[in-house]
Amino acid sequence: QLQLVESGGGLVQPGGSLRLSCAVSGNPLDYYAIGWFRQAPGKAREGVSCIAGSGEITNYADSLKGRFDISKDKNTVYLQMNSLKPEDTAVYYCAATYYICSGPGGYGMDYWGKGTLVTVSS
């Protein structure tokens, strides 16, 4: 059984940065693909980025390229978010599945964290 715990969310001004962390426990991280997804109020969940067990990165949203970067180290996966905009406000979730990233909706992910809220506002 895999456990995922997100942290690092909070209130940030437009143009600011945040780094989200997803601490993974229960099994070695290298066996899993870990993705970041987000859900804004009243909107469907959308994929942000995913890093496979091999380290290959899938960026689900072209609009986020250059602003959001995913990385991993030991048992933690990070999402560095720069130049944040009000429309980035959402609950951000990390999720895991075995080795290969799922599609952008996250329906193929098997394990989910509880999420961390990111609010971008002045």
Summarize the structure.
The chain has 122 residues and is an all-beta fold. It has strands at residues 3-7, 10-12, 18-25, 32-39, 46-51, 57-59, 68-73, 76-81, 90-98, 111-112, 116-120.
Task: Give structural notes.
The protein has 122 residues and is an all-beta fold. Helix content is 0%, strand content 50%. The chain has no helices and 11 strands. Strands 2, 4, 5, 6, 9, 10 and 11 form a 7-stranded mixed beta sheet that branches. The protein has a 4-stranded antiparallel beta sheet with strand order 1-3-8-7, with no helix packed on it. The mean pLDDT is 94.
How would you summarize the topology of this molecule?
Elements: E1 3-7, E2 10-12, E3 18-25, E4 32-39, E5 46-51, E6 57-59, E7 68-73, E8 76-81, E9 90-98, E10 111-112, E11 116-120
Parallel strand pairs: 2-11
Antiparallel strand pairs: 1-3, 3-8, 4-5, 4-9, 5-6, 7-8, 9-10, 9-11
Order of helices and strands: EEEEEEEEEEE
Low-confidence stretches: none
Distance between the termini: 40 Å
Say how many strands there are.
11
Question: What are the main properties of this structure?
Answer:
7-stranded mixed beta sheet; 11 strands; mainly beta; 4-stranded antiparallel beta sheet; about 120 residues
